[in-house]
Design a protein that fits this description.
19% strand; globular
């Protein structure tokens, strides 16, 4: 669904919690670090955190937070692009989550 909105790669960690919930969803936004930062700053519902995993939907942009000390080459060696975003989905209404991600992607990739 988000490919037309600037997502160039997406994957899930495959981790499962109780009743199949949980895991980390990772995707790469076209536009690298500036687009990743703009995406993060455009979110209204999802919480920006240093470590994802909670009952609330949360998101992190490793290139500007946890891995910000790495060069672009070191990021690639670590399997992270400058546009990589990781998120976990919480208990909020799924339509609200999708709407928040969609509007942030629109802003980040235009």
């Amino acid at each position: 669904k988000f490919e037309s909105a600037g997502v160039i790669e997406a994957r899930s960690s495959g981790m499962k919690g109780p009743k199949g919930a949980g895991g980390v969803f990772t995707f790469v936004i076209k536009g690298g670090k500036p687009a990743g930062e703009k995406f993060m700053n455009s979110l209204e519902l999802l919480q920006i955190v240093a470590n994802v995993g909670d009952v609330r939907s949360q998101v992190i942009h490793p290139a500007s937070t946890t891995h910000s000390q790495l060069s672009p080459e070191q990021l690639v060696a670590a399997g992270i692009s400058e546009g990589t975003v990781r998120l976990t989905i919480g208990i909020e209404d799924i339509n609200d989550i999708i709407a928040d991600i969609s509007q942030a992607l629109d802003k980040a990739t235009k």
